[in-house]
Amino acid sequence: MAEGTARPLTTDGDRLWRSLMDMAEIGATTAGGSNRLALTDADKAGRDLFVRWCRDVGCSVEVDAIGNIFARREGVRPGAAPVLIGSHLDTQATGGRFDGVYGVLAALEVIRTLNDAGVHTEFPIEAVAWTNEEGARFAPAMMGSAVWSGAQALADAHARTDRSGCRVDEELRRIGYLGDRHCVPGPVRAAFEVHIEQGPVLERAGRQIGVVTGIQGVRWFEIGVDGTSCHAGTTPMDARRDPIRALSEFLPELHRLVDRHQPLARLTVGRLAAIPGAYNTVPKRATVGVDLRHPDAAVLDDLAAALESSVLAACERHGLSGSVRVELDCAPVSFAPECVDAVQRAADACGYHAMRMVSGAAHDSMHVARVAPTGMIFVPCEDGVSHNEAERARPEDLEAGCNVLLGAVLELR
Ligand code: GLV
Ligand code: MN
Ligand code: MN
């Protein structure tokens, strides 16, 4: 709560909404969503707009070697560690108008509100836009926060390529965001990220605010199955080494496996490719991208082990050669009680109907939480729909989440 006042300081929901809609013009899709895949021209335009807005409100802006943007509002206590607030500006190719960008523009709205109210915090506040949270163009997801936190080596991230062979470092340089700030955390007082929930829990429960206590674990697997290309019309079925034979056995097995671990386990086959990809050619190779999640680290390990043996056994049965490579591995995270409590108190002070919950989606806060006390705030989105151009959120809920973000920051001493 702002010093000396009974009512909490609140943000300007209309201004936040206008900023969101202005940003949504960049990479707007015909179906009403956003396409700002990481390190594309649209991502650059979104970054440029954010940087301009941050400079307009008096922030100094720095960019680090993986392209993370830090917009800093100074505090009054010399040498105090900053509070980080933010999320990501990149989207899925068929993304919505709120996933990620809401958390970044809410951070900006917090700074605008503090400026308007003449509130000086003890500690600096840095509004952050993390690079490539989605991982939709360059795997893995959460790349900017992973490198910053030490979970991924900078050189490894720079060398990652998209499907057409473009490298991360070259794309960063091309769009002007290969920064010179050292990509390391330094002391951080605390970090907060506000985000749409991306699922149906808050809406079903009739709550406006999710006080996020942690994030479930997530692992991505790049499965490769190698066989032999041959003619679809002439090659007898018993003379083929067709990778799809293995897929048609292990994919149903994997679904049965997670069905036995309901309601918590999640399995998604989000990428599938047959190479070379012609109707009349048996593929020489098939690749399958699998996303596997569970809130319990030990269960996630067991599911991962079962996945690998199911894939390799199916390949062996058909004389194919199979490989399973882990592309992303984030263990479940529990947020710092200090930050969870600050979010809860801020929600209570505003009189919002809040509930505690674990995040089903992954967020940059997973990496941030390993190096700094971290908390997250969720607001509902319509029908829980996200990673979809039809993603919707109500202005009043976005304003509420932003008010809780501001309140949580001001709760810190
Ligand atoms: C974030 O986009 C996730 O994959 O959960
Ligand atoms: Mn997101
Ligand atoms: Mn997302």
Detailed description of the structure:
There is one protein chain. The protein has helices spanning 13-24, 41-56, 101-117, 143-149, 154-159, 168-175, 201-205, 243-259, 297-317, 337-350, 365-368, 395-411, and strands at 60-63, 69-73, 83-88, 125-130, 190-196, 209-215, 217-226, 230-231, 266-275, 281-282, 285-294, 321-330, 333-334, 354-359, 374-379. The protein is of the alpha/beta class and 413 residues long. It has 2 domains: 13-215 and 332-410, Zn peptidases (Aminopeptidase); 217-330, Alpha-Beta Plaits. Strands 1, 2, 3, 4, 5, 6, 13, 14 and 15 form a 9-stranded mixed β-sheet that branches. A 4-stranded antiparallel β-sheet has the order 9-11-7-12, with helices on one face. It is globular and about 80 Å long. Strand 1 (60-63) and strand 2 (69-73) form a beta hairpin. It contains 12 helices and 15 strands. One manganese (II) ion (MN) is lined by residues 88, 99-100, 133, 195, 363.
Chain-wise SSE layout:
Elements: H1 13-24, H2 41-56, E1 60-63, E2 69-73, E3 83-88, H3 101-117, E4 125-130, H4 143-149, H5 154-159, H6 168-175, E5 190-196, H7 201-205, E6 209-215, E7 217-226, E8 230-231, H8 243-259, E9 266-275, E10 281-282, E11 285-294, H9 297-317, E12 321-330, E13 333-334, H10 337-350, E14 354-359, H11 365-368, E15 374-379, H12 395-411
Parallel strand pairs: 3-4, 3-5, 5-15, 6-14
Antiparallel strand pairs: 1-2, 2-4, 6-13, 6-15, 7-11, 7-12, 8-10, 9-11
Helix pairs in contact: 1-3, 1-12, 3-12, 8-9, 10-12
Bound molecules: glyoxylic acid and manganese (II) ion (2 copies).
